[in-house]
Amino acid sequence: MLGMTPAPLSFVIEEDNRRKQASARLRGNRAIISLPKKWPLKLKDEAAAELKSRMAQLYDRQCKQLAKFEAQNALQDPEGNPKTLTIQTLDELQRYVHQLNAQSYQVPLKGVRMGWAKYSRLAQANMRTGVITISKYCLGNDIPEEAFRYLVLHELAHFIEANHSPRFWNLVARFCPDYKVQQRIMRLYFQRQQINTDL
């Protein structure tokens, strides 16, 4: 969760007979460590300790980045409350995107999809089909409101300018003047939702 005070990091250890290597993933403030069940206890303990250390360092870096944004009031309203929204279903996502399109570029949008990209694109616009796809890993509870708004505006602007030319960024800046900050915040949120580290 993005907010004023980060929750302490907790660890969950999972063991699996099919697993051949140890790995860890960060989900908000939970580090999930997966270990091969067949490994000797000493090897499992060593791998878990190494991955706990890596996840703690990663979580600490993310918390510091969030604190920097919060210090700049990028994640708060004038009263100091976190500016977040919750989008969990496709219907909620479609309503949000169509409403923002009506308030901004008014492009001929034919559809909105929820995608499954974990490590690549947060979202993409398909000019041929007129469909915007947003990764489910950008959604959930407490999405940074302005950052998510930037993400959608970015994709809508692609229906007018397909590449990332100066003209494209001018289009984005028309409705999101601080798009560079919001881009960094959205990427950080996306990473917090889905980060994997293998050992």
Distance between the termini: 26 Å
Residues in helices, as a percent range = 40-55%
What's the Cα radius of gyration? 19 Å
SSE run: EEEHEHEEEEHHHE
* Structure annotation, total helices: 5
Largest sheet: 4 strands, mixed
Percentage of β-strand residues: 15-25%
* Low confidence ranges: 195-199
The total beta strand count reads 9
CATH class of the largest domain: Alpha Beta
CATH topology value of the largest domain: Zincin-like
How are the strands of the largest sheet arranged?
A: 1-3-2-9
- The whole-number mean of residue pLDDT values reads 85
Structural class: alpha/beta
Query: How many domain regions?
Result: 2
- Estimate the global geometry from the Cα principal axes: elongated
CATH superfamily descriptor of the largest domain: Metalloproteases ("zincins"), catalytic domain
Named CATH architecture of the largest domain: 2-Layer Sandwich
Task: Please provide a written account of the structure.
- Helix content is 42%, strand content 23%.
- It has five helices and nine strands.
- It has helices at 41-71, 90-103, 145-157, 166-175, 179-193; strands at 10-16, 23-27, 30-36, 84-87, 111-115, 123-126, 131-135, 140-144, 195-198.
- A four-stranded mixed beta sheet has the order 1-3-2-9.
- The chain starts with 9 loop residues before the first strand and ends with a strand.
- The model is unreliable at 195-199 (pLDDT under 50).
Care to give the gist of this entry?
With 199 residues, this protein is an alpha/beta fold.
